[in-house]
Amino acid sequence: MKKTVFQINKMDCPSEENLVRVKLDGVAGIRHLDFDIPNRQLTVFHDGQLDQIEFRIGELDLDSKTIKTEEVDDIPFDDDRRSQRKLLWIVLAINFGFFAIEMTTGFISGSMGLIADSLDMLADAFVYAISLFAVGGTLARKRNVARLAGYFQITLAVVGFIEVVRRFIGVEELPDFLTMIIVSTLALAANGFCLYLLQKSKSKDAHMQASTIFTSNDVIINLGVITAGILVNLIGSNKPDLIIGTVVFVVVIRGAIKILRLGR
């Protein structure tokens, strides 16, 4: 068996990890994929087919290169997938639940920050769903799920951008800052709980570690919406809400584009 290490400089979150996993799906001879997200490296354990592996990774245009290939003894790969899947189901349910809560309260309160944050929660749910629903499925199924998720996110984000522009140039409409703060605080607590569960698992699996990084970024966004709510109250303007909404919409669209690349 051979072990090949790749440097993938643009692989920094679960979206890119899933991108690589789907791209390599079906390549004969791959025994195991070991992702090191913090160092942006991928180790492939395989029996031949190196040219095909290099070609598929190169097609992703993630600034990748082969570092080394060496012979290794057979290794029994024993991943604890059952407990990880259970944990990811919980995180998926929390993210999708708060997508619904934030989207609803965002419309009621008139807060673009809450609506944008709800789409970010939905983006997280899509990332976990692609991993869970598509495991063991055909490559075509994985691509269809990715395309559906990506186009849906982009559509919602574009509609959000249009509404942000309308509010910037139209009559100023103040969002309910108290709803923004309360709901975002609850979302912060939910993401904090997800982060606790992911860290408590102490899993060294790269996907779980990447999910921890992903959830940590969500905590930062939640704090941004809370700050925007406080500023709306202090200065009596909707601009902080529109600014944080715009920033998060950009994050959502970037994530959606990465997911769409899974459907190529």
Report on the architecture of this protein:
The protein has eight helices and four strands, in the order E-H-E-E-H-E-H-H-H-H-H-H. By secondary structure, the chain is α+β, with helices and mostly antiparallel strands.
Low-confidence stretches: none
Work out the helicity level. 55-70%
Number of helices: 8
Instruction: Tell me, rounded to a whole number, the average pLDDT.
Output: 80
Radius of gyration of CA atoms, rounded to a whole number = 20 Å
The side-by-side strand order for the widest beta sheet comes to 2-3-1-4
> How much of the residues is beta strand, in percent?
5-15%
Q: Based on CA inertia axes, which overall geometry fits?
A: elongated
Q: Structural class of the secondary structure composition?
A: alpha+beta
For the record, give the distance between the C-alpha atoms at the N and C termini, rounded to a whole number.
30 Å
Number-wise, the strands total 4
What does the main sheet amount to? 4 strands, antiparallel
The run of helices and strands is: EHEEHEHHHHHH
| Total separate domains | 2
Primary descriptors:
single chain, Alpha-Beta Plaits, 2 domains, elongated, alpha+beta, 68% helix, four-stranded antiparallel beta sheet, 264 residues
Topology record:
Elements: E1 2-8, H1 14-24, E2 30-36, E3 41-46, H2 50-59, E4 64-71, H3 81-109, H4 112-133, H5 139-169, H6 177-200, H7 206-235, H8 239-260
